[in-house]
Amino acid sequence: MRIEEESAAVSASRRHLVFAYYVTGHGFGHATRVVEVARHLILAGHDVHVVTGAPDFVFTSAIDSPRLFIRKVLLDCGAVQADALTVDRLASLEKYLETAVKPRESILATEIEWLTSIKADLVVSDVVPVACRAAADASIRSVCVTNFSWDFIYAEYVMAAGNHHRSTVWQIAEDYSHCEFLIRLPGYCPMPAFRDVIDVPLVVRRLHKGRKEVRKELGISEDVKLVILNFGGQPSGWKLREEYLPPGWLCLVCGASNTLELPLNFIKLPKDAYTPDVMAASDCMLGKIGYGTVSEALAFKLPFVFVRRDYFNEEPFLRNMLEFYQCGVEMIRRDLLTGHWKPYLERAISLKPCYEGGINGGEVAAHILQETAMGKNYASDKFSGARRLRDAIILGYQLQRVPGRDISIPEWYANAENELSKSTGSPSFHRSENVSVLSSWTEDFEIIHGDFQGLSDTMSFLKSLADLDTIYDSEKSTEKRQMRERKAAAALFNWEEEVFVTRAPGRLDVMGGIADYSGSLVLQMPIREACHVAVQRNHPSKHRLWKHAQARQNAKGQGPTPVLQIVSYGSELSNRGPTFDMDLSDFMDGDQPMSYDKAKKYFSQDPSQKWAAYVAGTILVLMRELGVRFEDSISMLVSSAVPEGKGVSSSASVEVASMSALAAAHGFSISPKDIALLSQKVENHVVGAPCGVMDQMTSACGEANKLLAMVCQPAEVIGLVEIPTHIRFWGIDSGIRHSVGGADYGSVRIGAFMGREIIKSIASTTSHSLVTIANGSMPDDLDDDGVELLKAEASLDYLCNLSPHRFEALYANILPDSILGETFVNKYAGHNDPVTVIDQNRTYGVKAAAKHPIYENFRVKAFKALLTSTTSDEQLTALGELLYQCHYSYSACGLGSDGTDRLVRLVQEMQHGKLSKSEDGTLYGAKITGGGSGGTVCVVGRNCLRSSQQILEIQHRYKSATGYLPFIFEGSSPGAGKFGYLRIRRRISPNKL
């Protein structure tokens, strides 16, 4: 439901109402918008009791009325920030636990008693979860007013902090489900806990003074350019310098600490300065994105130079709205901290913000709240929030929705459900368009080397390259707005020089999964979705630099030096920046390439650009491992259609495509296997994710419609297994974001390596004891072979070299279920895994983590043998059973998830349903894939139309239960080695010269 601007008026009510208005403890932005709603309620003659942790002046400076009551209570803590730009995800969850979860019962009792005592007619929450539950328990209606909810924000944190925090997120979502409906503000995030929604205009604080009056009070003339620095506190250790501002500029600093020393061209504003007035008097703003700053920038048409915050998931949605109305310029964090402000500020004042929408959301929201408190019913008869929620606390969160889509805010969210099944990454492409697209880009490009092999996604990518010069010529562009990333890409290449294009697919983990790091046989299928990378090398003097990179180089006064510039498509709905650049000399530490540890820290400085480690890290690995020195500048465009966080190796496809493109552009002859091994080093040592090598190996060495069979000791490809024509594999995305760098994957890996060390110790002790007891002669029940077997197990290199029967006979009953890290280190010294570190204060599961790869290796061998056996229903049944066994073994390790378990159950229900039994079953088994803890489920079935229909039925059943429509992976494509590379040159027409 959308409430239009003209219905905004809040008429004075004949009935005096009491509102209890709860305000979240995260920053001032929520408090400032609450002020505007509360002001209109008070003007209508009502009492407003604000429950908040914010300072009183935020409210009293805008509302002077005896009907405003402030109760200082903090009932949630928001996101804990280490500084103005850095969110601590684990600390956020732990503080919420201490603030709102542990004292929950006493909080509820206190709030119910207080609500009853003030005789509240309506509870309003922005957006405190427990307030909704307290209202329900007190039999009072409740409404939320917000653009995001904490279950959505925290759901992403769970993936990094560990799933033991998931119950906290679940509780938050359940609390919200008691809310009657949501008053939703523009720039909103997905909020699955709310059953009914009313959209309102922006909530914006009114101006008290005009531009001229404010400037006069500050003593600043109209000819001075004024930027307001609005971070809500400055990044730690930051010192502002005079040269940060262009000549003729002044900077007004909000929220500066008393100890911060400012140069003459920076002015410290008082703590209680009324920000809207100062914004309206300024020429642009520099700060971080939040609802208050974005809404007021749009309302006052103030250009906003913003720096991304890491891990605050509200930001991408506000950023899209800001940029849609041509009001935003992104500054990378490095340039903020080093003072390269000039190109961004000059760009900002050239913008023409065009927001013309309503800005009276406070008045509109107050009208709705008054009507609700008087008895009007806005809610529908839909299922209750609790029924719809089920797994939706983590399932529906769409930061990774579909990269590369240009849909405006807020209309895109209403359309998103219909868009979910479309391809991602490059612009949409349909097979029926093959001929026209082919003729289009072949007119623009000459293929000097290689073959696009009829791949429609490659044709689409080449078409997008051909269109870049149209985007670059912004004066001729008829679009109201082009995505910044495509504008950056348009300025990336010198079309007089050759461009190299590579392609690397993601992979579906059919069998093997997390057993790869223990040496298992694995079977992996390259999927249809792939990453494309275009690379060009240029002499530094011919390299087209972005303005901020040029400013940085000019500041060094060294003349043209080799620079790396990267554009990555698909940043619109994520917290990562679309561009990255660095001087290639930054990779050097003296006369040697920097260490991997230093590189990891380098890319971690700015979380919004940490993604660049997957791409730029390939350069460092080539420098360190092959001794390569890069003397030319490098431009790279990355466009991936492999969805992130779904367990189908999006990172490996980016690494392999990037490594392959660099090799091609520089004439290096590197085998696909070595490309994969080098790419794994990028992920392990530069990114810092402890993955095995099967992902990169499949992406590099796989072939379409075949399973890559590899023994991971460390990486021996033993062949390609044809997928029989009567068998088909699908992937179904659970919607739960998977991260190979997450706490659960790493802890299970550590547990497996601990188990190996304990088994080696047991074998060594047993063999030594037996020989000692025999006094030099062999015991009757032990022959030479037995002792030799124990000696071999005492030096076990890979867990998968231990057979299941030996494990059960000798070690299963001795291995501990779990062990404290400190206890293990004291007894065994270390676990001998080069890519993980034991946390001595953490308890690790050992037995299940060690048992999984030992049995998984046996299952994969059986699976491989079955694929080549006689075609029969028993063959398919046995293949499916092996998948099920693998799935439950994952769960025993702690790597299961609600969503993937649900999908596996749906496959089982389909397999054992009456219809399937009466007509030849078509689906036979399913398992969680990759690193677990969410991601994608692999399904095996008969290759027929009925199977595809059942997969679609599962997709829609899952959506009905969770609210999330799964992405389905079907089909296969060649690996990077089979694709090779394209060397292309632009056919430049005379009018382009």
TrEMBL record:
Keywords: ATP-binding, Nucleotide-binding. One of its GO terms (molecular function) is ATP binding. Residues 614-702 form the GHMP kinase N-terminal domain. Residues 493-537 form the Galactokinase N-terminal domain. Pfam families: GalKase_gal_bdg, GHMP_kinases_N. One of its GO terms (biological process) is carbohydrate metabolic process. SUPFAM superfamilies: GHMP Kinase, C-terminal domain, Ribosomal protein S5 domain 2-like, UDP-Glycosyltransferase/glycogen phosphorylase. The keyword Transmembrane does not apply. This is L-arabinokinase. It comes from Erythroxylum novogranatense. The lineage of its organism: Eukaryota, Viridiplantae, Streptophyta, Embryophyta, Tracheophyta.
